[in-house]
Amino acid sequence: EAMGMDKDEL
Amino acid sequence: LCGDMCHVFSIIVLLLRLRVARNAQGISLRTHELFLLVFLTRYTDLFTTFYSLYNSVMKVLYIASTSSIVYAIRLQEPICSTYDRAQDTFRHWAFAVAPCAVLALLTHLISGGSLFSFVDIQEMLWTFSIYLESIAILPQLIVLQRFREVENLTGNYIFFMGSYRALYIVNWIFRAYYEPGYRHHYVVYFCGVLQTLLYADFFYYYLMSKRRGGKFSLPT
ipTM score of the complex? Predict the structure, then answer.
């Protein structure tokens, strides 16, 4: 799965 | 936001510590090289995904400020000549970077990832950075043990560095409860808890010394 919007944390 | 601000604050305190005292005594270069590697491998999505202005600015800020810390300790006079290489001995390539790389590869393959696309490599680098961040403080803790007596600013920077991930744990719990569709990253949770636990001992002595208002030193 592609890098989705779920990696919005630092 | 509090977690991120603790992180920013720890970086500012460290930069102050280096520039005001103009020395790097008791500071581990290896820890900051590890952090630089963490940010460089985690934030490759700066080029591929836009989340928010805040998110992008912070990423650039972390990379830039950590680079400047590494630069100052390595190359900038007079700071670099006070850096005590002989005390900073944790073998970070063998015992931090290599194991994390293997673990990231295994995690990626077990969860069904392949190795043949940019996104796969990016995903693997991201996982690697999560593992590496959790133990990046180890060289610094070793140096701290050697010096025993911890300067105020050095103690403060490690305290804020530890608080940052601890606050992220609160953030994960909050988001898991209140945000519909929040995706769980169990590797992140596990590493975040491990990372915070590594600071536990330090927190204890730090808070005790603040309460006494005296000098901060670690036990033998």
Answer: 0.80
